[in-house]
Each structure stands twice: as C-alpha cells, then as structure tokens.
Fold Carbohydrate kinase PfkB domain-containing protein.
Amino acid sequence: MSKIAVIGNANADLIAFVDDLPELDEVREAKDWTIMPGGSGSNFSIAARSLGANVTLMTAIGNGKFSELVKEVLLLRGINLYAIPKDGEQSIIFIASTPRGKVMYSLKGVSHQLRPEDLPGELDADILHVASKSSSFVERYLGKIPLSYSPGPSCFYEPRRVRKLVRELDFLFVNEPEARALGLLEEPRPLPKKALVITMGDKGSLVITKDFKLRVGVYPVERVVDPTGAGDTYAAAFVVTYLETRDLAESARRAAVAGALAVTVVGGSVVLNREVVIKEAKKVIVERE
C-alpha cells in the first residue's frame, strides 16, 4: 500500500439545495441540506484513501463545533490526521445550490492560519501532495521527498514563484487557466521530473513529459451535478495509480474516470469504488504524441 502525505485545507461545506435563489429580503424554502468536509486537502485525501492508499493529511484543525465535525468525518474515512491545533472555528463554505448553478460564501477560519513551520521537517511517505496551498509549503520539502503539487489560486497570486518550482516537482496538476497563467501551454516551458498534467474539462486532459505527450479522452457521464473537487479527485487517482503501476497512461485513464465520477455527486469529497474505477478506465482513450 502506497503512503501519501497531503498538505491542504479541511473545511466544512454547508450546502442548501434550492430551486432558485431569493431576491433581497426574500425567503426560499430549501428542499434539503447537508454538511460535509470540503477543501482541496480533504478532497484529495478522501479520494486517495478510497482508492487504497495510506493517507496522512496535515491540516489546521480548530476548536469549534464544525472543527470537531470535520475531524470526525476524516477519521471515519480512514484518513491519518496530523492535526495542527489552532484557536478558532474551521473554515466554512456556505453554498446555495440550484439546478442552474450555485453561489458560495466563504468564512475564513483556521485553515488560513496554517504555516509551513507548523509542519514536521521529515515525512514518512512515498510522495507529498500539496493541495491548493502556497508555494512556501512545497519549498519546505524540496530535496526531501518526491513532490506533487496542485497550486490552485497560487497560479494567479504568485505565478513566477510557482513556475520556478516546476522542475523540482515530480507532478504538477493544473487546469487550462492555471497553465496559461504559468506560461505552460506552449513551448518552451519547464517540466516536472515525471509529468505536467493539464485538465481541460470536456476536452479531456494532457499529460506532458520531456519525451512524449499523452492526450487523454473524456469518460462520459449522463449528468453533471457538481464540479466541485473534480480536479482534486483527478489528481488523487493519478498519484495513487502511478505509485501502484508506474504507468502514466493508466494513471491518466483512472484519473479521467475518477474526475468524471466526482461531478455526478454533490460536494468535493468523493468516496470512489476502486474496482469500478479500474474497470471503467479501459474505456478511456489515450493517444501518445
């Protein structure tokens, strides 16, 4: 069983399901509601664990009621939690979800208090994945452990600093806008040691190495319910599969299936069926260029 260390946020997502959004001073009745863990660190960890990896999530955990809930669910999902205690409530995302889309309000909490110096200097893992945290978290572990990075917003906040790290990484996961912000859509471009992975929504994804490029097709689903966390789930499946098989094409196939299945359910923390992902991956077309 592969061992993956993860640095990232573990938030509480409060989701209300409504037919439409109210006007100012108006009330709408919610059809249903739920609370679930969210945040890129949590999303990646839960997906990776469900695919068979031994996962340790390093994240800030507060002392509020939602903090306890998030902690309880992560432990229930089999995540090894390296909780850095912080004073305050967990970061909370309020979501009103309609059939046409959703609106979200973010309440900053302890997730934003996490600092690189809060974390251990040495890690017992096959790889470290840094999920939507600043480049400083990656820099702390340069030369100490294989590195996988999903920069997320850092692609726009600190593009030069992220780009400078690319060659030090084993894997870099970005979507098209993020890749554009980093200047990675066209050559010449820096590449990670193993692969640059660019997800492109309904156009599939690209896996780019120093020697070749893989164009990965889409795994079709009947209905998109919620795209939240699809990128985290994709990255989790890719990393887990690569550690298991050392095969980039198979990693991309399973990642395509996992990412597609993630959009068919509500919320970003997706529990995957490993056998289904492996079986359905055979349907994903991968072309080598």
